[in-house]
Amino acid sequence: MTRLDESQWEGDLETLRGLVSERAFTGETMVLNMGPQHPSTHGVLRVILELEGEQIVNCIPDVGYLHTGIEKTMESKKYEQALVLTDRKDYLNNLGNNLTYCLAIEKLCDLDVPPRAQYMRVILAELSRIQSHLVWLGTHALDLGAMSVMLYCFRERERILDMFEMLSGQRMMTSYIRPGGLWRDIVPEFEPALRDFLNYFPAKVDDYERILTENPLWIDRTQGIGFISAEDAIRYGCSGPVLRGSGVNWDIRKAIPYSSYDHFEFDVPLGQHGDVYDRYMVRIQEMRQSVRIIQQAIDNLPGGPFRSQNRKYVPPPRSELGHSMEAVIHHFKLWTEGFRPPKGEVYVRTESPRGELGCYLVSDGGPKPWRVHFRTPSFVHLSAMPVMTRGYLIADVVGIIGSIDITLGDCDR
Amino acid sequence: MTTFEQRTAAAKIIQDALPHAIERVYEFRGDVTLVVKPAYIVEVCRFCRDSAELQFDMFSGVSGVDYYPDSPRFALVYHLYSLRNNVSIELKAFVEDDDEPSIDSVTEVYPAANWFEREILDMFGVTINNHPDPRRILTPADWEGHPLRKDYPLGYETVQFSFNFDEVNKHKPYAKE
Questions:
Q1: Cβ-contact B138, B88 below 8 angstroms
Q2: Which end of chain B is more exposed for a tag (fewer CB within 10 A), N or C?
Q3: For chain B, how are helix, strand and coil distributed in percent, rounded to 5?
Q4: Using H for helix, E for strand and C for coil, what is the string for B5-39?
């Protein structure tokens, strides 16, 4: 077994010249690698920490370990085939990604979405938000030592994943939201399961709060840590709970409503101090508000078609193929070539559980997207992470990464 | 004012203030895009951010597009949003040179652009002048080529069946004897 000798070590530090301060080269500060394999980085995130004792002088996130070329692959698939890839991008908010991509296609094609589908999309997006926040809470609390919260959150999450399975057959990578509406109509078992969940879930959020919110250990580990001011948050492009934790009231569901969000009444929780604790409180309150939105949506769910009837973009139901020649032709065209949106480009923003998820779609008039670019919140928030981490202790880094709520699939695509 | 009217009004303000920098304005499905000459992109961004009427303080992102084989080949689209006025607008800059594309960095105006520009220089090979940290971001540091260019292949992995088992095995990068 060879030992790393001095000369090898210096060579490694050379690659960081310009990123870490000069003091690292004299030995005053230590450079520590929080490598891509680490239980608390929530994925394959590499953070290079420059430490002075325990205090962080600088932190450099290094991403790209989960880059799978989703955007490039989408350019070689038909629009509806490419939809399947969007599930896998931010794998904790599958329906939200589907929704953003579908909204972009619908804006590009000027495609109508029936009200039933719009309300269902809201229900699914909010369920997806609750499910993502449960994973966040479980893993964030686990990192900071509150290990029991993790399994409680995942137990609730199982109920949501069961509902997704009822609708689409798949727990996570559902691809249920399609251009024009939904893949298929909701099954009869969904509504009772959803109402049951809505009755049972708010008490669970109270349970999580009972464990954490006034717990002196939790407060010690999260209050005053990872501060980002409102001005800095806006300058670095932060959005979602990171921005709202610093007190800036911007929620895309309220500001630029999409998919009938303006029909629902809900509050937008805001923090004041911009620290880890406030971001935690914002997300907990968001879970409660999501329950409120879902309750309103399911109570007022309109009847009618679940997908647009525009046959140029939406395939006809199989029963129609038996007696309509046009249906057969539309089916043939859509399955062989795919639909052709008009030439142009659009940018659509939605509120994902992490922040502003934007989809920039460029079409050249062909059946495959020319360019799809996802503006992902995790990518932007990680670039703001050094601002939140400088000056704190190394034990706080884990809490800060958890409070930003990153998903590496979202960051790297 | 409707959203579209607000956006066209904002575009008009920019066009009136900096006529030498804007080539044209077009709208599609309610989104207003200003085509900006690439040499003036920093100036336009600074005006958008600092102007009292516009206040485009939120930088949503910059996307690169490769229009190969059309020329000009590369375009950068900047998505700006104003929190106070709830208006969004797009700035599009076509990079002049196709063979050695370069454009100035807007990081000094919008620090949020830092990583987005790194992604563009990684994926498209457009040199970003005056960028504080011009390293590759998504691909490994020693990667060659720029993946999102249209002349870069998608890349496939050959499926290993029994008839081509040994052939595919030869190319697999694991420790062999």
A1: no
A2: C
A3: 25, 25, 50
A4: HHHHHHHHHHHHHCCCCEEEEEEECCEEEEEECHH
ipTM of the complex: 0.89
pLDDT of residue A15: 73
pLDDT at A10 over 60: no
Q: Nearest to residue B49, comparing CAs of A411, A45, A40, A237?
A: A237
| B173-to-A194, A286, A338, A356, B170 alpha-carbon distances in Å | 49, 47, 37, 39, 8
Q: Which two tokens stand for residue A280?
A: 């935690």
- Domains: count for chain A: 1
Assess if residue A229 is contained within a domain.
yes
Give the CA count within 13 Å in the CB-facing half-sphere of A24: 23
Q: How far apart are CA A101 and CA A80, in angstroms?
A: 10
Which of 95-134 (A) contact B at CB < 8 A? 107-108, 110
Among positive and negative, which fits the CA dihedral A75, A80, A83, A84? negative
**Arch. (CATH architecture) of B3-170:** 2-Layer Sandwich (3.30)
- CB atoms B61 and A375 under 8 Å: yes
Q: Residue A129's domain is classified under what CATH number?
A: 1.10.645.10
- Distance from the B155 Cα atom to the nearest Cα atom in chain A, whole angstroms: 10
List average pLDDT for each run of 10 residues in chain B, which is 177 residues long: 84 90 90 92 91 90 90 91 91 90 92 92 91 88 88 82 87 75
Which chain A positions have a beta carbon within 8 Å of B60's beta carbon?
A: 237, 347, 349, 356, 358, 375
| Chain B: residue whose CA lies nearest to A254 | B86
> Cβ of A371 and B65 within 8 Å?
yes
Distance from CA of A106 to the nearest CA of B (A): 10
Would A57 be classed as within a structural domain?
Answer: no
Q: Does residue A27 fall inside a structural domain?
A: no
Optimal mutation site among A74, A112, A258, A347, interface B, most CBs of chain B within 10 A: A347
Q: Which residues of B touch A380 (CB under 8 A)?
A: 61, 112, 115
Q: Where are the domains of chain B?
A: 3-170
Round to whole Å and give the CA distance between A104 and A46. Answer: 32
| AA identity, residue B71 | S
Q: Where are the beta strands (DSSP E) in A46-148?
A: 46-52, 55-62
Which has more confidence, B71 or A92? A92
Count CB neighbours of A178 within 10 A. 23
For residue A279, give both structure tokens: 């971001």
pLDDT in the model for residue A11: 52
Q: Is A374 helix (H, G, I), strand (E, B) or coil?
A: strand
Tokens 């509406």: give the residue: A181
- Model pTM? 0.91
Indicate whether A259 belongs to any domain. Answer: yes
Read out DSSP for A77-89? S-HHHHHHHHHTT
pLDDT value for A54: 87
The tally of CA atoms less than 13 A away on the side-chain side of residue A402 is 27
